[in-house]
Design brief:
- There is one protein chain.
- The protein has 380 residues and is an alpha+beta fold.
- It contains 12 helices and 10 strands.
- It has helices at 8-25, 29-35, 40-49, 67-80, 82-102, 105-117, 232-268, 280-308, 314-339, 341-344, 349-357, 367-377, and strands spanning 122-125, 141-145, 148-159, 166-172, 182-188, 194-199, 210-221, 225-226, 270-271, 274-275.
- The protein has a 4-stranded mixed beta sheet. A 4-stranded antiparallel beta sheet has the order 2-3-7-6, with helices on one face.
- Helix 9 (314-339) packs antiparallel against helix 11 (349-357) and helix 9 (314-339) packs antiparallel against helix 12 (367-377).
């Protein structure tokens, strides 16, 4: 049976991470969005406080929490700033999570442990210029050469790309096997042949760092292989399935921020001699927004509960991610409308929420990919 109440430990964590987000993230969200710069000090401080490792193994310095704890962190941080949290999300729930699940003891000492402390920042190198939703089209190659691999190729739209100390990246190790010929590697940013080709500018989440990465005869030791050779796609999908639950919570937090600001606005804004919120049409809009947020929360919690219980949750993770991210797009759009002209101005928070959310429908598998996954899980 699903119990929706938080444990005492989870409730204490929620209060602590909410306080951190309110004091350290929300006040600088607009500034760093306008500067298109990532506040790396936020990630470092989360590491100092032990929050980066909340769901990671205790033996590596983590807290050992489950998906519910991950969801708590993502919702509260997403409420404060989607752009700032995106860099943390990729670092923790993609790069570090992959190393925690598939890494060797040495890889965990070299990257997971300092990553949990915030001493090293990770990136997730999956997408390519012509391969995102279709990983079988990846062209980045890793060719075995004695005790090394030589990597050549390009990775695109990589969050944390230009600030990362290491990248967990996919590369083709057996071209004849398609997606079953992919492997994962940990590439240190100081490795000769690895470079940041260019930083990329974006519509939203502009406080996050995004870059194109290049591998040109980038030679790494066979010890850089993460997990077994040619099982990189399967391992990446396991990492992404967990990430989709976190992504749903992330979107939930941003939607809740847009809703709260809209609710306060319609209560305080007057038109035709009364608060805007007294008009039935406006009330119905807010009621529908509250309904959608609650529905997304329940989908996300079910998926997280299944994951924490060790039960199958591929379908539920995709459902939660699909509904929550599309819901967030609707809620933020309504928030701009409810604010009227003020919501369209660049000094408004709701326009930032509106811009930020679009990437949530694209990353971690597009909405189309989530629908494909759900359909396959239905046996279609």
């Amino acid at each position: 049976m699903i119990d929706f109440s938080l444990t005492e430990e989870q409730e204490l964590f929620r209060k602590a991470i909410r306080t951190f987000a309110e004091q350290e993230v929300a006040p600088i969200a607009r500034e760093y969005d306008e500067r298109e710069e990532y506040p790396i000090h936020v990630l470092r401080k989360l590491g100092e406080l032990g929050y980066l490792g909340i769901t990671l193994p205790p033996e590596s310095g983590g807290g050992g929490g489950g998906m519910i704890s991950a969801a708590i962190m993502s919702e509260e941080m997403g409420y404060a700033s989607a752009g700032i949290y995106l860099g943390i999300y990729v670092h923790v729930f993609l790069a570090l999570n992959a190393i925690a699940r598939f890494g060797s003891d040495q890889q965990k000492r070299d990257y997971l442990e300092p990553g949990i402390r915030g001493d090293k920042v990770g990136a997730w190198g999956f997408a390519e210029p012509d391969a995102g939703s279709d990983p079988g089209s990846m062209t980045t190659r890793a060719v075995r050469d004695g005790d090394d691999y030589v990597i050549n190729g390009t990775k695109m739209y990589i969050t944390n790309g230009s600030i990362a100390d290491f990248v967990v990246t996919t590369a083709v190790t057996d071209p004849q096997r398609g997606m079953k010929g992919l492997s994962l590697f940990i590439v240190d940013a100081k490795t000769p042949g690895f470079s940041v080709a260019r930083k990329l500018r974006k519509l939203g989440v502009r406080a996050s760092d995004t870059a194109e990465l290049a591998f040109q005869d980038c030679r790494v030791s066979k010890m850089a292989l993460l997990g077994e050779e040619n099982v990189g796609f399967a391992n990446a999908m396991k990492t992404l399935t967990a990430g989709r639950i976190v992504s749903a919570a992330f979107a939930l937090g941003t939607a809740r921020a847009a809703f709260d600001q809209s609710l306060a606005h319609v209560k305080g804004r007057h038109a035709f001699g009364q608060p805007v919120g007294q008009f039935q049409g406006i009330q119905w809009q807010l009621a529908d927004m509250a309904l959608e947020i609650e529905a997304a929360r329940l989908l996300m919690l079910k998926a997280a509960w299944l994951a924490d219980s060790g039960l199958p949750h591929i379908k539920e993770a995709s459902m939660a991610k699909l509904y929550a991210t599309e819901m967030c797009a609707r809620i933020t759009g309504q928030a701009v409308l409810l604010h009227g002209g003020s919501g369209y101005m660049m000094d408004s928070d709701v326009q930032r929420f509106y811009r930020d959310v679009k990437v949530m429908e694209i990353g971690e598998g597009t909405s189309h990919i989530q629908r494909n996954t759900i359909a396959r899980q239905l046996g279609l």
